[in-house]
Amino acid sequence: MKTSLISASLVAILAAGAAASLAFGQAGGPGPSGQNIAVIDVGTIFEKHVRFKAQMDQLKAEIERTENQWKAEAKEINGMVDQIKGMKSDSPDYHKLEAELARRQGDFNVNKALRNKELMERQGKIYFATYREVEDAVKDFCQRYNVALVIRYNAKPIDSSDPQEILRGIQRPIVYVDKRYDITGDIVTLLNRSAGTPVSGLPQGVPH
To answer: Hey, how many other C-beta atoms are within 10 angstroms of the C-beta on 185?
Structure first.
């Protein structure tokens, strides 16, 4: 521009899934040597979360329709402005059109501000609800595989052509991650499975 949406089917998947079949549990437990720390790329999860993407696409389409509506109304108002410029300021028609123009401009500004606020709030609710869903999925996963701590990190490579991206990249708190501790793919699979969506391109060992 707030509530968890984790479904009963996701809980069922976590409860009934084959033990140690998830990528993070392939070695018979969470990581080598009883390691109980994992990492997760939340940005990647949002990018691959099918239901979130569908909700955002729907919202973006609505925003586009709204913007087209504002453009059409603004065009009509500008037409009234052009019309009033060619009228005598002391004529009855001038004062009538002037009052109508003031009303239209006022309504336009108020309605646009309210509508934009509504769309921004809806976007925020979609992000918040999806993040709560991710939190619930991570919590259930960690309880199942005895993971005590999950650290957020950015798995994307640094864009060497962008100076600002380079600066952000070298400030990342995590420099190296053993991919065996990355549960991003597992969480994406669980979230999308709860919506009945097939998932491809995820780590081997994740049930499809």
So the answer is: 24
Q: Rounded CA gap, 123 and 115, in Å?
A: 12
Amino acid occupying residue 59:
L
Cβ neighbors of 134 (< 8 A, separation 6 or more) are 42, 45, 49, 187, 191
In a domain, residue 116? The reply is: yes
pLDDT at 72 over 60: yes
Q: Which residue has the tokens 């949406």?
A: 5
Return the structure tokens found at 180.
């065996």
Joined tokens for residue 34: 């009883």
The DSSP code for 160 is T
Alpha helices, DSSP H, located in the chain? 8-16, 42-48, 50-85, 92-145, 163-170, 184-193
Question: According to the model, what pLDDT value does residue 202 have?
Answer: 39
Within a domain: residue 200? no
Identify the burial level of 180 via C-beta atoms within 10 angstroms of its C-beta, where 0-12 means exposed, 13-18 middle and 19 or more buried: middle
Q: In whole angstroms, what is the distance from residue 118 CA to residue 146 CA? A: 41
CB atoms within 10 A of CB 23: 19
Domain membership flag for residue 3:
no
pTM: predicted TM-score of the whole model, two decimal places = 0.70
In contact, 101 and 84? CB cutoff 8 Å: yes
Which residue segment(s) compose the domain that 117 sits in?
8-193
Q: 8: left (phi > 0), else alpha (psi -120 to 50), else beta?
A: alpha
